[in-house]
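Hey team,

Filing this mostly as a record. A colleague (T.K.) asked me to run one chain through the structure pipeline before their review meeting, and I want the input and output archived in the tracker in case anyone asks later how it was produced. No errors, nothing strange. Just documentation.

Input sequence:
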Amino acid sequence: MTTTTTNSGPDGAFGGAGLRNTFIGLAGSFGTALVGRHDTPYKIATGKYDIFADNIADYNSGRVDGVQLIDNVHDARANNAVAYISPKMSGFTFAGALVTSMDHLNKAGDTTDAMSLALMYANGPLTVDFGWQDVKVLDSKAWKLGAGYTFGDAKIGFVYEDVENWGGNANRDRDSWLINGTYKMGAITLKAMYGQADVDVTATVTRDQDMFAIGADYGLSKRTTAYVVWTNGDDDNNTTNSGDVSGWTVGMRHSF
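Output structure:
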């Protein structure tokens, strides 16, 4: 039996700010089954491509001029998830979860708030990942595809996402993409990312978002890493040019 608490990302459509992954479950040769608060399979699917996770350039945070390269309404954790993650089989891993209607008032007799699925493949230098999710309380569906490849000390990643009825708004869609890369030189890892998002805000207003980030990690030990990140984000709509916003972060991570 496993109980755990971890830290990863915002809460999106499922609410419950303040806690991270907190669940009880069983793990064995059959895979992992759990009940509790946990990242959805949809979020897990492309988490490996969020190279600036939990800092100013996190791909779903909106910390710089509100730019979200991945929609944090869907890319979230759920309070009342019943989830299963399969063991790795011929490079493939499957994850599925149902989120019970305890999270929100159910709609028209729905017995779940969301269904979330992920199919992930990893074999040698190649990773390919697919996520799909239906959030019933918002009548919103989303899917995303990620891919990555490692060339020696260099690694590249790509993610595309499509959201229907974005934020619960009928006929308002959202699509986005990002590309990133890392290069490891001894204790130093250089990072860069660029992406764009097109968002239907209303029937007549669309938002064009883009973000660029660069950074570097320095490994002080196996458990401690210092980092610096600079990013620039621009969130404009078809009636107003808001101008861009830049920011930077210096920090340190330690794993206990």
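Quick notes for T.K.: The chain has a mean pLDDT of 87. The radius of gyration is 18 Å.
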